[in-house]
Amino acid sequence: MSPKSKRTRAALAALVVAAGTLGTAGAAQVEQSHRGQQQHQQRPSLFERTATYPVFQNRPADEDPEAGTVAEISSVSEDGRTLVYTDAVARRIGFLDIADPDRPRGSGTLSLDQLGDAEDEPTSVTVVGQYVLVVVDTSAGHARPTGRLDVVSLRDRKRVASFDLGGQPDSITLSKDKRYAAIAIENERDEEATPPGRDEGDLPQTPAGFVQILDLGRGATPAQWRTRTVPLTMADGRALPALAKASISEPTDPEPEYASINSRNQLAVTLQENNGVVLIDLPTGRITKAFSAGTASVRGIDTVEDGTIDQSGAIEDVPREPDAVGWIDDRYLATANEGDWRGGTRGWSVFDSRTGRPAWDAGNSFERLAVRHGLHNEGRAGKKGPEPEGIAIAEYDGVPYAFVGSERDNFVAVYDVSRPTRPVFRQLLPATNGPEGLLPISSRGLLAVSSEEDDAEAGVRASVSLFRLGRGAGHTPSFPSVVSADDAHRAPIGWGALGALSAVPGQRHQLCTVTDAAYSPTRVLTVDTARRPAVITRELTVTDADGRPVGYDAEGIHARPQGGFWLAVEGEKGADNKLVRLDARGVTRQVVPLPADIAAGLGKQGFEGVTAITDRHGHEIVWAALQREVTGDPAGVVRLGRYDVTAGTWSWFGYRLESTTTPGDWIGLSEITVVGDRLAVIERDKLNGPAAKVKRIHTVDLPTSAAPEGTLRILPKRLAHDVLTDLRATNGWTQEKLEGLTVGGDGHVYAVTDNDGLDDATGETVFLDLGTSRQVLGHRR
């Protein structure tokens, strides 16, 4: 290598180190720059989602489909075709046939009441050979923790062996050579108990947790397997010297949480509440090292729950409190620093097992990935932010990857850890709510993500999502479809709840959108559609006439050729609905209320879209759509409002909605835009996931004059495009709120879903380029 090349590589390495300290988003940017200089290197393959399977579809036939059912921890058969997951809510394990990862099929469940008691709860699972190893919490209470390990035949699902674990188990892990399984016996604390001289829920609380080793041997049958206990305290309850010297928070109550085994059969166990890690040699059962996970200060994050994505906050000297752990190689291990009660640093770390010291830390970059991808859960800002809980390490095509799951922001971040002390962010994978289990199936190029949150009332159900590593350079996954700009020198623009779209006059590849009541103050965002994914490049804060930031529930936006914007603002009450005109600086210049008689007939659903034209007389005419019927109007008929800005008058036309027979559902309008001599509207139902049915674009002829007084004139509609097909083509959870629609300056039809700021939603935003207006709407420019 030439001296010049060496200097270049050294400089790049230094930049990557700095970027790793500040965050992996910066590291990814440096890596992209490096790839640009090394053009002979192929772009890395990326994962693409192949399917999302709602596990309620795998319930017993006689069970209420609304009953809670989840997928938490999962494992897979050795051929990679049968996935097994735990369902603690329904107290069973489930089986999925994933032979075809594009079409997973439910293969039924095994209730734990067939193995023990109806109150038994599975906490983890792994598969070895033809056997499923299920760890079961049988505890009657915190003071008397009990548990067992059931060995179930994968073929006939009958129990062939069972082992008393002597305490309440949390996780199980299997060694690579399949000679050992290790179970973390947590004996978790009672959050309502008060130890002497301590606060409620504090440590220590007896009995102490420990580790159980299951010796599988070579070729032994389950009847020949044996367990060994590795105590983490002295026999009399005092602290082990190794833990005491390591500055473990409460070494008399270690509470082991999660476990991982490297190729040398070294077991790493996290002590989450105690902010520590213990290393155990499995063949001998000897503790070889214990160390504290330490503390971290993280700056440039959102720390206040106030409806504003304000990334100027900081946390100082906070314990990492790691949950999941995974060996990257035989030296370095990675932890997901979820936190429990004293800490949580909103990221993940790499530790050198030889020294017990951090070799790399994500800093603020994990949370900023959520912000950039529109997945930041502002409601958790004052707590532990994204709560990285799960972590898994696996090698695909010779490249080691780390997968880190965000429990609260519903994503899995993927990193190349070829250099363990310098992880490089590769991509973000969307999940349904509460991704818990991260299961690499590298033999088939797959990753399975199982989610523990199930909300039947909101229609957002727990699921197993499957992803496949793409083959060949240039593969572009369907997610993300829109992000905010990646600038290593400043925080990404925070965004979410995109419920409206408008073309920007005179700009071929620019759209604008607006945030709704999920965030405050209201901001107008500029979207660059020339890039894939589309990029949010600018934000404009909306103010009142006196220049003070204001929060509108903006559900529609129109960028005016004359400059500035019209907003359609929805309200909690009918009288709160209004049109708002902004100037180009975002200052409120005009407020147009609804006529009193219309406002009196509205409930919570009011304005949902706005657009405008200039008529042949040079007058600006604003069109706005109401989402639901006005009291007193014909059933199933909503209003399209025509506001003559010059005259200051309203007139109204009718639009007939589709009907629904699904209990709790309704159908309404959520957008309106002018397309030549027609108005295009979005008509949608309130359903999501597999229940979703109506996500459509219809058109009506654009009236050339005001509506006659009296009976509503209903405009005949024509179906232009069924967007449900496009939403389902992403292979994710079908989003409910298709709410933005426009025709860009490039002649393409764009649509976007509102993620509700992750409230009763998965948080995923789907931004769609549906094709040209001629293809989609039958309109020639």
From TrEMBL:
It comes from the Bacteria. This is Phytase-like domain-containing protein. Residues 25-45 are annotated as: Disordered. It comes from Streptomyces mutabilis. Keywords: Signal. InterPro entries: Mesenchyme-surface_protein (IPR052956), Phytase-like_dom (IPR027372), Quino_amine_DH_bsu (IPR011044). Residues 1-27 form the signal peptide. SUPFAM superfamilies: YVTN repeat-like/Quinoprotein amine dehydrogenase (SSF50969). Pfam families: Phytase-like.
